[in-house]
Specification:
alpha/beta; 18% strand; globular
Length: 394
């Protein structure tokens, strides 16, 4: 079914999207653009993809009614437990799909970028599964704050290359990955979010759409209705939000809330709240909303969460924001930490710092009696324990 929130034939969501790439990358991107829909919709791909999601990833992920959280905020709050997937986050849905696409295109070498390390771990995992060479680019700062995931990637056989430029975070890791891709066009770039040149945003959104596809039938089983009143998800690049929103974007009765990282405060100069601070520009191969100065230079983002520490959003999210289809909110570091401790203590679930930002807006929303809310629990918090412990002691 065609949706106004699908890209046009040139990869644009309204004014956002496209493919702004160096000439040397054109053959690679064009090969993917010409083949990805046919591959994704083939019976052979669907059989392999669904089989691996079920037996390797452990899908469907549960849709859990958080009773104590619901009592506190006066709504029926369901948690979509992507944190229970193999490798601990929603990222594995996309990497399973893209590794199958890479194989269909005859690629044997994989590169990826990562911020929090969840996409890097997922990519290293599927490369080990398929016997493919894997190189992951990661900001030097993120390598330090996400050390457990770096150890996992190396144990899985991946080579981790530090990005030493700029803020030494996700943006810079992506820059390094693109530079390497230009020099090694025979590789397949397995992008981890709904960012980058067309067709990556659309391909990643389609692969993550399994999240909202499952929410529909799971909610129907639990409540008798397949549509919640509200869906909440955190947004850096925006892959988990794209997946949670995907099958609801055309239904205006379902409220979509995207939560960005407010850092130390939106007006503090230390933030990653792109929709509030950004303007239209081009980053990493697509036209979108990004944080930039008066000369068009990218402003370094900041967040306690490595996965949300990105100066832009994917073009689909830029369109959801621009068209006012989704409401964009933000949460500070402190609010996210408070929300993480709260979920841990009243539901026994330690969320990833990224996910904690989505939970942090619950106190800011006035829910109606009986309102059904789904929060996409995009990842688990094991990787963030050192940060949680440090601030707990504070």
């Amino acid at each position: 079914m065609k949706s106004k929130f699908h890209p046009d034939k040139n990869g644009y969501y309204g004014q956002f999207g496209g493919a702004f790439i160096p000439e040397l990358l054109y053959p690679n991107v064009k090969e993917l653009e010409d083949n990805y829909i046919q591959i994704l919709e083939s019976d052979e791909f669907q059989e392999e993809y669904k089989s691996l999601l079920k037996d390797y990833v452990g899908r469907p992920s549960p849709l859990y009614l958080a009773k104590r959280l619901s009592e506190k905020y006066g709504a029926h709050i369901y948690l979509k437990r992507e944190d229970l997937n193999h490798t601990g986050a929603h990222k594995i849905n996309n990497t399973i799909g893209q590794i199958l696409v890479a194989q269909k295109l005859g690629k044997t070498k994989i590169i990826a970028e990562t911020g929090a390390g969840q996409h890097g771990v997922a990519t290293a995992t599927v490369c080990a599964l398929m016997g493919l060479e894997c190189t992951v680019f990661m900001g030097e700062k993120d390598i330090v704050r996400q050390a457990p995931n770096v150890a996992r990637m190396k144990m899985l056989g991946a080579t981790v290359i530090p990005a030493l430029s700029g803020s030494k975070t996700l943006k810079d890791a992506t820059n390094e990955a693109i530079r390497y891709w230009i020099q090694h066009p025979e590789t397949f770039y397995l992008i981890g979010s709904v960012v980058g040149p067309h067709p990556y945003p659309d391909m990643v959104a389609r692969l993550q759409a399994v999240i909202s596809e499952e929410i529909k039938w799971q909610l129907k089983e639990k409540t008798g209705k397949e549509n919640p009143d509200t869906i909440i998800a955190c947004v850096g690049g925006g892959s988990n939000a794209a997946g949670a929103f995907y099958h609801y974007m055309d239904d205006k009765d379902v409220e979509l809330i995207a939560v960005e990282a407010g850092g130390l405060g939106v007006d503090s100069g230390e933030s990653a709240a792109t929709s509030q601070l950004g303007e239209v520009g081009i980053i990493h191969g697509s036209k979108t909303i990004l944080m930039q100065d008066e000369y068009g230079q990218i402003i370094e983002p900041y967040s306690i969460s490595a996965g949300l520490d990105y100066p832009g959003v994917g073009p689909l999210h830029a369109y959801l924001f621009d068209s006012k289809r989704a409401t964009f909110m933000n949460a500070t570091d402190k609010e996210a930490l408070t929300a993480a401790y709260e979920l841990t203590r009243i539901e026994g679930i330690i969320p990833a710092l990224e996910t904690a930002h989505a939970l942090a807006v619950l106190p800011k929303i006035k829910f109606k009696k009986g309102q059904v809310v789904v929060v996409n629990l995009s990842g688990r918090g094991d990787k963030d324990l050192s940060t949680y412990i440090k601030h707990l002691e504070d």
